[in-house]
Amino acid sequence: MGIERPFIVAIDGPGGSGKTTVARAVAMALGLPHLDTGAYYRAATVAVLRRDVDPADTEAVRGVVEEVEFDYNGGRMTLDGDDVSQAIRSDEVTAAVSAVSAVPDVRRRLVDAQRSWVDRQGGSGVVEGRDIGTVVFPAADLKIFLTARPEVRAARRAAETGGVPVAAVQSDLERRDQADASRATDPLRRADDAVVVDTSDLGVDEVIASVVGAAEARRR
Questions:
Q1: 16 vs 47, 89, 110, CA distance in Å?
Q2: Which of 18, 32, 34, 7 is CA-nearest to residue 205?
Q3: Are 198 and 147 in contact (CB under 8 A)?
């Protein structure tokens, strides 16, 4: 049964915690649109790299992101009308996205875009990212913080990347975690009123059922 009144589920957590898989399934179960906010930051990174801008050059990065247009529709990310859904998952983008995401003006621009996207959906959505419950939608009806043990997250991400050694993936995740948690603007952290779900020893169906159940309870 769908949710009739505007309703926002914010799902945050570090890489490899299961955010995208869970968010998509929860959105389908609740009849709500799904938004992967990380796709916006990755698309911004694609724009920066395509213009041969150093991700560490804050002013140049800001200039690039101000000039391009982003859209997210049906799970596809577009950059100036170009579908970059595959490009945003490249290793090059993954290596640079933390630097681009740390630029305050980039975050402001993309947070505005994400809020506008949800407004266009009637004010409802299952929104995933790293600052949804703390910054993008601090008044969300339900806030979930997904986590898992580092080695579990690394194993999951390694399986997705097709053969990359788990140790290498874990090292990269630790670097990203540190960058996200320590940035001055909108760091990754758990909202005080978020429900924490450790997915380390849970099947994906168990996690989805838990989040859907929590959402159904909140909308009553």
A1: 25, 14, 22
A2: 18
A3: yes
Work out the number of other CB atoms within 10 angstroms of the CB of residue 94.
17
- Phi and psi angles of residue 31, each rounded to the nearest 5 degrees, phi first: 70, 35
pLDDT tens digits for range 9-50: 999 999 889 999 999 999 999 999 999 999 999 999 999 999
Task: Please report where in the chains the tokens 């998952």 appear, as a residue.
Answer: 89
Q: What does the alpha-carbon distance between residue 157 and residue 152 come to, in Å, rounded to a whole number? A: 9
Lowest mean pLDDT among 2-6, 59-63, 89-93, 145-149: 2-6
The answer for residues whose C-beta is within 8 angstroms of residue 193's C-beta and 6 or more apart is: 133, 143
Q: DSSP label at 192?
A: T
- Nearest to 22, CA basis, from 169, 121, 128, 180: 128
pLDDT tens readout for residues 111-126: 999 999 999 999 999 9
Which 8-state DSSP code applies to residue 162?
T
Strand (E) or helix (H) holding 125:
strand 125-129
The 3-state secondary structure of 88-99 reads HHCHHHHHHHHH
Report phi then psi at 23, rounded to 5.
-60, -45
How much is the pTM?
A: 0.91
pLDDT of the residue at 1: 45
204 is written with which tokens?
A: 């994906």
Rg of the chain's alpha carbons, rounded to an integer? Answer: 17
